[in-house]
Design a protein that fits this description.
Blueprint: H1 6-27, H2 29-40, H3 45-74, H4 79-97, H5 106-129, H6 131-134, H7 140-170, H8 178-195, H9 198-203, H10 216-229, H11 235-264, H12 269-297, H13 299-317, H14 323-334, H15 337-351, H16 357-386, H17 389-394, H18 397-407
Transmembrane segments: 12-34, 54-76, 83-101, 107-127, 148-169, 181-201, 236-258, 270-290, 302-320, 360-383, 389-407
Protein name: MFS transporter
Subcellular location: Cell membrane
């Protein structure tokens, strides 16, 4: 296999840095920190989980509204990097600010989390769109999976450092309270994220673009309208986005609420953090494996595999009672979460016209983010109505089934074919 180019590696290393946010803020330390703060304030376990779900729904709704508009403007020459930088700064600075929010103010924690999440997910919109600029179409599966693989490996380092500091603080080995140790983890995340984003800023540039026009905002709305009016040309893209809307909803919800769910089951913070660490380690080679297998069996078939494994995860969650059950569930998720995300990105990258990649990745974002509103709300409402988080997780199975059915209708993209030449098999 051809070696990765400087641009491909620089692009992928952003995942190495950004993924620290994904595990420490989205999945591990922050949810536990928030749950403890909410519990100390007298909020019930099911309500605090619900409030986290509502918060995720709020920031995803905001970004879903902005995504297509900002993406369309970013297609102009030189704009993609500027938008990426703006969201990157919002995300990193807000993540650092989490360390300075009073631990007894759980509501302010959630508000600050909204801004951090807006920055992280917004930067990822433009980062994903850069895939058409850094590599050729036939290498997209491999390069996309390489990014996710690096992300899982790289995120374990600041995660280990953070967990060691928290555990040493809990044992009284170092003169830090558990609260301050968690705050240190937030600062470590921001520093790590910033440091390993430098290659992205230095070596990745926008190769495909459209020439700048007067009144770019007004022109962007016109371009969106034109795209929507010609939607029949993009049948493959539309079908894929509908499928993606459903199955990525379930994936994102399970990732973002897994720690809160484990807490509701009575699992200790230490046990949860160990499971999450091992999940990251196991996910790295599986993400790379998905990329390699996609080159042999096609990305679409490997997406089928990932979705089916997530259906099993939702069903199995209904019967979880012990830490061993949680380990089994975590390893099932680890085997597929990176692969399904990486191949979704590369599959979509092959479908879209390169010079309008930001506009289309804006729609990719809006479908993904609107989906991420439905999943957390579904879990939140079901958890509150039944008083049992397991029913909330099980309810996600319908999303994966619908996604699988719609995906089966999406044609395989022909190598180097223009979008309007893609026809069903």
């Amino acid at each position: 296999m051809k070696k990765f180019t400087k641009e491909e590696k620089s692009w992928a290393f952003y995942d190495w840095g950004n993924s620290a946010y994904s595990i420490i803020i989205t999945t591990a330390v922050f949810p536990l920190y928030y749950k403890a703060a909410a519990t100390d304030a007298g909020v019930s376990l099911s309500d605090s989980t619900a409030y986290l779900g509502y918060t995720i729904a709020v920031f995803t709704f905001i970004l879903a509204m902005l995504g297509p508009i900002l993406g369309t403007i970013a297609d102009y020459e030189g704009m993609k990097k500027k938008f990426f930088t703006a969201f990157f700064l919002l995300g990193t600075l807000s993540t650092a600010m989490l360390a300075f929010v009073p631990s007894d103010n759980w509501l302010l924690l959630l508000i600050c989390y909204i801004f951090a999440a807006l920055g992280a997910t917004g930067a990822n919109l433009f980062y994903d769109a850069f895939i058409v600029d850094v590599t050729e179409e036939k290498r997209m599966n491999t390069v996309s999976a390489f990014g996710y693989g690096l992300g899982y490996i790289g995120s374990t380092i600041p995660f280990i450092i953070s967990i060691v500091i928290i555990l040493l603080a809990q044992n009284g080995t170092i003169p830090l309270s558990t609260v301050n140790a968690s705050r240190a983890a937030f600062l470590i995340t921001a520093v790590w994220w910033i440091s390993f984003s430098i290659p992205m800023f230095r070596h990745v540039r926008q190769r495909y673009y459209i020439e700048r026009e007067a009144n770019p905002v007004a022109q962007s709305f016109k371009r969106i309208g034109k795209t929507l009016s010609e939607i029949r040309q993009y049948r493959a893209i539309v079908l894929f986005l509908v499928a993606y809307f459903f199955y990525i909803d379930g994936v994102g919800t399970i990732i973002s609420m897994s720690t809160a769910y484990g807490t509701d089951l009575g699992l200790s913070s230490t046990s949860l953090l160990i499971v999450l660490f091992v999940t990251q380690v196991v996910a790295a080679p599986f993400a790379l494996l998905y990329g390699r297998l996609a080159e042999r069996f096609t990305g679409k078939k490997m997406l089928y595999v990932g979705i089916c494994i997530y259906i099993i995860v939702c069903i199995y969650a209904m019967f979880m009672e012990t830490i061993s059950d949680f380990w089994v569930l975590a390893m099932l998720v680890a085997s597929s979460q990176g692969g399904i995300q990486a191949l979704s990105r590369s599959y979509f990258g092959k479908l879209v016209p390169k010079e309008n990649s930001n506009e289309f990745f804006g729609f990719y974002n809006i479908f993904g983010k609107f989906a991420a509103i439905m999943g957390p709300l579904l879990v939140a409402l079901t958890s509150q109505i039944t008083g049992n988080s397991s029913f909330g997780v099980f309810s996600l199975v319908i999303l994966f089934i619908i996604g699988l059915i719609v995906l089966s209708r999406v044609p395989e993209p022909k190598p180097h074919a223009p979008v309007d030449e893609i026809t069903p098999q």
